[in-house]
Amino acid sequence: xxxxxxxxxxxGQLAQMLAQSVKPMGIKCIVLDPNPKSCAQxxxxxxxxxxxxxxxxxxxxxxxxxxTYEFENVPAKATDTLVGQISVHPNPEALRVSQDRLNxxxxxxxxxxxxxxYEAIDSxxxxxxxxxxxxxxxxxKARTLGYDGKGQVLVSDASHAEESWSTLGKVPAILDAxxxxxxxxxxxxxxAQSGGVVFYPLxxxxxxxxxxxxxxxxxxxxxxxxxxxxxxxxxxxLNHLDYVGVLAVEFFQIGAGDDARLVAxxxxxxxxxxxxxxxxxxxxxxxxxxxRAVMGMELGSTDPIGCSAMVNIIGDEPRPGALEAVxxxxxxxxxxxxxxxxxxxxxxxxxxNETDLDALLERFTRVVG
Length: 369
Ligand code: AMP
What we know:
Layout: E1 5-9, H1 13-22, E2 28-33, E3 45-48, H2 54-63, E4 66-69, H3 76-82, H4 93-98, H5 101-110, E5 118-121, H6 124-134, E6 138-142, E7 152-155, H7 161-168, E8 173-177, E9 183-191, E10 197-199, E11 203-208, E12 211-217, H8 224-240, E13 245-254, E14 261-268, H9 278-281, H10 286-295, E15 307-314, E16 330-333, E17 343-351, H11 354-368
Parallel strand pairs: 1-2, 1-4, 2-3
Antiparallel strand pairs: 5-8, 6-7, 6-8, 9-10, 9-11, 9-13, 11-12, 12-15, 13-14, 15-17, 16-17
Helix pairs in contact: 1-10
The chain binds adenosine monophosphate.
């Protein structure tokens, strides 16, 4: 084994599940997070400090064999401090791209990946001009620090431009054409240090209020052409960034059947919520494969096992006894305090076929809500 201790920047549930995935291999994780209540401390040693704290980063560099990260807003100063002291995977360049929606869309364009039509917005004048070319409704999205539907405003028509620009906070943004998508799909891909790339089957994702609620995988009715379009996009991004680890690409599907095509919305340079189903639903989970990649190990099989649905538990804990009443549900509670809109856990439902999955999901929804 080429690594014994892995450093993780960020101590949330993704770090927690990363640490859980390598525990059976005897690998220890040290997470860096300013929050002393970080949930990953259930499975990893927690270093409480700011992400840019040179001493804490030095501790990580000294005590770990490799450092990875679990969220895309890691400050560049943190990775700059680490690089030179220790290997950091994925390539911090992926953070620079994904922290800024305009950089992300520019990279998609350079790689020939289709996206929604968009324009860069730096002023109210830009917004009026873009609304003329793109049309309304359209989504005004802050270039930085937006996630889970935060930092975006729907502009229903040009008469709402000024109000939308103020609501967003007059920050650099992009205006995205509103895509009348049929559904949202994502691909979770893993690139090894050798450069080999493997993929999990596409997941179909349902968001409400900008937050992921349910992912089903393998997504149904995906033809080979669509699967290939998603995989080719992920591969060109991974190779372009000389990336090691798990990366997710989120798409909108436009049209159905033979007319179906994908446009890429964004990337996540990390393990992804639409890949949580892989813990029970694939031969090797996205978490273990991410860790295998950053450690320089061979990747495990991404083959699915039957059909899976992942349901996020958001905001409140389910009422007492509800989860236990569906014994087939694989429950992952993260140990986070309930708060509106916060992901505090997820469950995976896994069955041999789609009909059984639909019935189980229906029962789960009825019992748990
Ligand atoms: P994002 O923060 O870009 O991931 O967007 C959050 C959610 O808003 C997405 O999952 C979609 O449901 C919706 N959304 C984002 N961009 C668009 C778009 N251009 N057209 C329609 N819906 C969108």
